């Protein structure tokens, strides 16, 4: 099965940095200073989750006011969500899982897209739809690195962005896996730090995370 353009472009984006910050924003007013802190720290690709009422406005504001940020929408659950991502000018989209309708819509479009998987059956569906880079979610509860390695055996062409249960203490271990292109994580900018406006601390955490790839053997 050939790889579609959406997946090829997603792979290129994920390769920009070892960590994709997974961000939940409760107040749209926090969006710009948060994005600037992450970019200064070396993490330009940012996933804004569609989990709050402020998420879409926050993403729009970052796109308009922080040109160095590469803004993606996360928690994309339907083709309509995918359309919304494209309409606001998002650079990519990410899902926690996959569905036939969503895979078809993403494969037919040109927005870089990363579907989520947890099982071999889900991974087969993604590969058959032309996606060779996926989000392994929730990474730690789903079996951790051992589970990812088991999936990698029968799917040698696939690379992964594990997300869920990954933090400062174990990110380097995940990044050392040869099939992991990047990891996603909320530890870079947890809601408590965002709500407190702790931009310097977030920048420092992003800077540390941006250098994690050097830990690979």
From TrEMBL:
GO terms for molecular function: 2-dehydro-3-deoxy-phosphogluconate aldolase activity. Homotrimer. The lineage of its organism: Bacteria, Pseudomonadati, Pseudomonadota, Alphaproteobacteria, Hyphomicrobiales. Keywords: Carbohydrate metabolism, Lyase, Schiff base. This is 2-dehydro-3-deoxy-phosphogluconate aldolase. It comes from Undibacter mobilis. Coiled coil: none annotated. Belongs to the KHG/KDPG aldolase family. Pfam families: Aldolase (PF01081). Pathway: Carbohydrate acid metabolism; 2-dehydro-3-deoxy-D-gluconate degradation; D-glyceraldehyde 3-phosphate and pyruvate from 2-dehydro-3-deoxy-D-gluconate: step 2/2. It catalyses: 2-dehydro-3-deoxy-6-phospho-D-gluconate = D-glyceraldehyde 3-phosphate + pyruvate. It comes from the Bacteria. Its EC number is 4.1.2.14. InterPro entries: Aldlse_KDPG_KHG, Aldolase_TIM, KDPG/KHG_AS_1, KDPG/KHG_AS_2.
């Amino acid at each position: 099965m050939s790889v579609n353009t959406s997946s090829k472009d997603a792979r290129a984006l994920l390769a920009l940095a070892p960590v994709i910050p997974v961000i939940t924003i409760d107040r749209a007013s926090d969006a710009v200073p948060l994005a600037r802190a992450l970019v200064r720290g070396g993490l330009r690709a940012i996933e804004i989750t569609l989990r709050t009422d402020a998420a879409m406005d926050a993403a729009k504001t970052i796109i308009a006011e922080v040109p160095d940020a590469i803004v993606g929408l996360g928690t994309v659950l339907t083709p309509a969500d995918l359309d919304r991502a494209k309409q606001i000018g998002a650079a990519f989209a990410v899902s926690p899982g996959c569905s036939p309708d969503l895979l078809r819509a993403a494969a037919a479009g040109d927005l870089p897209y990363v579907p989520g998987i947890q099982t071999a059956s889900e991974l087969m569906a993604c590969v058959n739809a032309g996606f060779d880079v996926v989000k392994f979610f929730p990474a730690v509860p789903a079996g951790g690195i051992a589970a990812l390695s088991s999936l990698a055996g029968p799917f040698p062409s696939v690379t992964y962005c594990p997300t869920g249960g990954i933090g400062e203490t174990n990110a380097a271990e995940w990044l050392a896996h040869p099939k992991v292109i990047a990891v996603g994580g909320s530890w870079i900018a947890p809601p408590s730090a965002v709500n407190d406006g702790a931009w310097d601390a977030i920048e420092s955490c992003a800077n540390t995370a941006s250098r994690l790839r050097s830990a690979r053997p």
